[in-house]
Design goal:
With 177 residues, this protein is of the alpha+beta class. It has 5 helices and 7 strands, in the order E-H-H-H-E-E-E-H-E-H-E-E. Strands 1-2-3-4-5-7-6 form a 7-stranded mixed sheet. 38% of the residues are buried.
């Protein structure tokens, strides 16, 4: 397994991984309508790639997953999630870094991809002076984050999709040592 910074050339592959992960890995956690509605609040945030805070994990020369962190205020959402976006820079002395956009190709699930991304993200945030990290978890991602030391702060419902469906999410935090 190799963790590297994602490049702009990776964007089509990353988008495909996100699409597959949203469609397949949320089954059993969300209803079909919630899975479809989650596409409005999840997805590709190219700012993370441009900021050099987004990782691709390769297994046998294939991108198996992606995810990263941010020094910006946006907690979750993709390029298409305009209302959720806030590009203001965070103060590492007062605010937590954000862990963002974690996705694993379904055929590589439960092989350490997510944990490798979290390790790389937390190390990079710590190197920039952050002492805490925060994320908005999907219900399917919550078990991984709990296993990696994140604790629940609150359960929320995302804004309704055009069809009126709201997706359950979990805001979680972790103190970096």
């Amino acid at each position: 397994m190799q963790v590297r910074l994602a490049e702009l050339e990776d964007l089509p592959a990353l988008a495909a991984i996100m699409d597959a992960a949203i469609a397949e890995l949320q089954r059993g956690f969300l209803t079909p309508a919630e899975i479809e509605a989650s596409r409005a609040v999840m997805g590709l945030d190219t700012q993370l790639v441009r900021d050099r805070t987004y990782f691709a994990v390769e297994i046998e020369s294939e991108i198996a997953g992606c995810g990263g962190w941010s020094r910006r205020a946006t907690l979750y959402g993709g390029d298409h999630s305009g209302a959720l976006r806030n590009d203001a820079l965070l103060d590492p002395k007062r605010e937590p870094a954000r862990v963002r956009a974690m996705y694993t190709r379904p055929e590589f699930a439960r092989r350490g991809v997510g944990r490798a991304i979290l390790d790389a993200s937390e190390a990079a945030a710590r190197a920039e002076g952050f002492t805490r990290v925060e994320l908005m978890a999907t219900l399917s991602g919550e078990p991984l984050y709990k296993a990696c030391g994140y604790r629940e702060v609150e359960r929320v419902l995302a804004a309704p999709s055009p069809e009126g469906v709201r997706v359950p999410l979990v805001r979680m935090v972790k103190t970096l040592v």
